[in-house]
Design brief:
By secondary structure, this protein is mainly alpha-helical. It has one domain. It is built from five helices and two strands; from the N terminus they run H-E-H-H-H-H-E. The chain has a two-stranded antiparallel sheet with strand order 1-2. Helix 2 packs across helix 5.
Length: about 200
């Protein structure tokens, strides 16, 4: 009886687990391959007759299932254009533009705030109002730009998520359609005297 050390057992266990995983992957790949159908004539059909029967059954399977594996479903082209439309407005100097009038609204609010602060501090209200207006205008434009950029990013993310969902739906539909097509094709060929694997 051979004597095994802990190292040799762990190596054997690793090799066995890798071998088992490889077999499982290979088995699942074979089961997922619906397109690989092998057709064998059982009634001494000629190769010309077999080719004609296969073409006829493929045409019949398309008419029955509504799916043609040579023309799989694709995502509509409008999805790719929707992702590119979600962009921010850019001014000629290359900066993201703020909403029209945001600077004026900010200037008015800043001027009012500056005047009120000056009133409490017994300072010159006109200087405080001018400073407040300038600060308010800059702050309002900056906030408007941030808001526009954030909104554009959210629109782009939503469009990308929608495109990913549509792609997943198309892939699922193609997989199901392909399975249905090859099942219908196999049934037709078996009815014409072929063995389909």
């Amino acid at each position: 009886m051979p004597i095994y050390t802990n190292n040799s057992l762990s190596k054997r266990a690793r090799i066995l687990s890798i071998f088992t995983i490889a077999i499982m992957i290979n088995f699942s790949a074979v089961n997922d391959s619906y397109a690989a159908q092998y057709v064998f004539p059982q009634q001494n059909q000629t190769s010309e007759q077999q080719a004609a029967d296969e073409a006829s059954c493929a045409s019949w399977a398309v008419s029955q299932t509504g799916y043609n594996p040579s023309q799989p479903l694709t995502v509509a082209a409008s999805t790719s254009t929707s992702t590119s439309t979600a962009t921010t407005q850019v001014t000629p100097d290359g900066n993201d533009s703020a909403d029209r009038g945001s600077g004026m609204r900010g200037a008015m609010a800043g001027a009012a705030a500056g005047a009120m602060i000056a009133e409490f501090g017994d300072d010159d209200r006109s200087d405080a109002a001018q400073t407040g207006a300038a600060i308010g205008a800059v702050a309002a434009r900056r906030q408007s730009r941030r808001s526009n950029i954030q909104q554009a990013e959210q629109q782009q993310q939503a469009a990308q998520q929608q495109a990913a969902q549509q792609q997943a739906q198309v892939q699922t539909a193609n997989t199901q359609g392909e399975q249905n097509f090859y099942q219908a094709r196999a049934a037709c060929l078996e009815g014409k005297g072929y063995s389909v694997i």
